[in-house]
């Protein structure tokens, strides 16, 4: 989910896609919906989007970063995480924090 100004920027980048990449534009644009807040300030996700995303269970996983966030069915997210091979941690994650840099050295040594 994106705030509207971020979505408009993202949509502009989608317009640059060509050839086979245009499938991604269709994927994002055809599933995009405006959502409202209820009286308590909660986001009201349309049932069509809940169904598309498999958000029919009672437990949800919320993951956010900056100006967007993701909602997952709890079981689907934990299954995806458990089967994920992240590979070696990218150097970019160690460029800003000495603790992480030291941790990487320890990870390589171990």
The number of E-state strands comes to 4
Q: Overall 3D geometry?
A: globular
SSE order, as H and E? HHEEHEEHH
Strand order of the largest sheet: 1-2
Please compute the radius of gyration using only Cα atoms: 18 Å
- Helix share, percent: 40-55%
Counted by DSSP, the helix tally is 5
Poorly predicted parts: 104-110
Mean pLDDT: 77
SS strand fraction: 5-15%
Alpha-beta classification: alpha+beta
Distance N terminus to C terminus? 39 Å
**Main beta-sheet annotation:** 2 strands, antiparallel
Summarize the structure in words:
With 110 residues, this protein is α+β, with helices and mostly antiparallel strands. 44% of the residues lie in helices and 15% in strands. The protein contains five helices and four strands; from the N terminus they run H-H-E-E-H-E-E-H-H. It has helices at residues 4-14, 22-30, 47-53, 74-82, 98-109, and strands at 36-37, 43-44, 60-65, 68-73. The protein has a two-stranded antiparallel sheet with strand order 1-2. A two-stranded antiparallel ribbon has the order 3-4. Strand 1 (36-37) and strand 2 form a beta hairpin. The longest helix is centred in the C-terminal third of the chain and has 12 residues, at 98-109.
């Amino acid at each position: 989910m994106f705030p509207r100004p971020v979505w408009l920027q993202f949509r502009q980048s989608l317009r640059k896609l060509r050839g086979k990449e245009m499938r991604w534009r269709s994927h994002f644009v055809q599933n995009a919906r405006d959502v409202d807040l209820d009286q308590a300030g909660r986001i009201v996700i349309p049932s069509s989007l809940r169904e598309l995303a498999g958000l029919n269970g009672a437990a949800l996983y919320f993951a956010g970063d900056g100006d967007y966030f993701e909602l997952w069915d709890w079981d689907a997210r934990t299954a995806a995480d458990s089967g994920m091979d992240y590979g070696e941690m990218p150097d970019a994650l160690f460029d800003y924090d000495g603790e992480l840099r030291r941790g990487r050295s320890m990870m390589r040594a171990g």
